Amino acid sequence: MELEAALPPPQVRLNHKSRRYILRVLKLSSKHPVKELVDKVVEQIKEEAQFEVFNPSSTTQIESLVKSIYSLVDLDSLEVIKHFYFPPWNRELPYNTLISKKPKEEEARNHIQYTHSLCCTNTTSIYTDGSQTKEGRGVGYSFASYNFTDFFLPTIPTYTYKRNIGDRQIVYNGELEAIAKAIKYTSQNQEGENWEYNIFSDNQAAIQRLRTPSDRPGQNHQIETAIATRTINSRGGIVNIIWVPGHSDIVGNEEADKLAKKATLIGSSSTTTSFAFLGIKINELMKSEIQHYLELNKKSKSLISYASRYSARISSKIQLPSGTSRELSSSFFQLKLGHGYLRAYLHRLGITEEEDCRCGCIETVHHLLLNCKEYRTQRRTLLHKINKEVSLRELTLPFLLYTKIGIKHTLVFLKETSICTRKWYLERNQEERREEEGG
Fold first, then answer.
1. Could you tell me if 419 and 378 are in contact, meaning their C-beta atoms sit under 8 angstroms apart?
2. How distant, in Å, are the alpha carbons of 279, 285, 308, 309, 401 from that of 290?
3. Residue ranges of domains in the chain, CATH in brackets
4. pLDDT in tens, 239-257
5. What is the pTM for the complete model shown?
6. Please, which residues bridge with residue 164 across strands?
7. Integer Cα distance of 331 and 310 in angstroms
8. Contact 138, 167 (CB under 8 A)
9. DSSP for 282-350?
């Protein structure tokens, strides 16, 4: 049931919540009493590791929590958060942010029209991007700057920059740093007075982070962006950070994307670890614990057990199409688990005297879905529909109840036959009683 509900076992959930708690504590101010305690424990663990002295008997609860994530990353390399940098009475930012709510295709067309209108104006457009590739050795980011002072639309950037920030950060961090570095470059190389600078990014999460002053991860890039923008503002310049649709044949965006991919292949000098990366490592640890739990439970000797029928697979949500009715989903899971309105199951619980189907065979999940004579026509139709999408010689429970295509067609089969529902079970019993009385 835990697998079908997409719930990890209780112990795994407790471990995960504990690690996430320590992750939150690490983001607190160094003056926070809990953070002070965690910092002391971290220093203590480092000393124990240095002198190879460990005393498990004296381990406190907070020490156990810190040790649960200590080996995941170098905690000393975590990104710095300057707490209380943005006072509550002054949360205004010197730059403008804009995220269009229009569909991607429409916004791409609007962007191209807008760039044409910029020709012969004191405007510079800078496109930023972050990337991570299978061939690369970390996260790369880049930006490409275009000047619009001429009559013709620029197609070649006046300046490009790319960098690799290492493998202890995620693409989101690269997107943030790309925007910050682009604005910093602009502040150091400002074209002139009263100039307008448009910074285009295809990452809405990064723009959302920059528009909200807070003591949360990514703050260092927000501070850098604000400082550089104020320098530009002091010379009459304006900075706009604008969302642009990615992979929409926009020249600047395509150029930045290409440069960011190249940046993943170059060496990195960064030693910073982002909180987002630590969060991913904590999630990966939870998955490995779930996998270990599943492997232990694979040893069931019963041929009709869940673990014997289906291979272990970790999912983050219930494997049913959205919009499936409660009654239909209920009958589906009853079939898959073998617990429900099945005579073999009810007989085992002592609820019914009979365990046979009306056709004379033992009424199990395998029988109803694959062999029962009463549903031969529907089963033939089911196989025919499946073969339009994928070649399949015969139906099997793992395919019908454990694959995306199989589940979709099985739900249609269940809707047509109503098997394994309470109504189906009661109506069939009434029919049998009438037949017996009539006989």
1. no
2. 17, 9, 17, 18, 21
3. 96-272 (3.30.420.10), 326-438 (no CATH)
4. 999 999 999 999 999 999 9
5. 0.78
6. 140
7. 18
8. yes
9. HHHHHHHHHHHHHHHGGG---TTSHHHHS-----SS-SS-TT--HHHHHHHHHHHHT-SS-HHHHHHTT
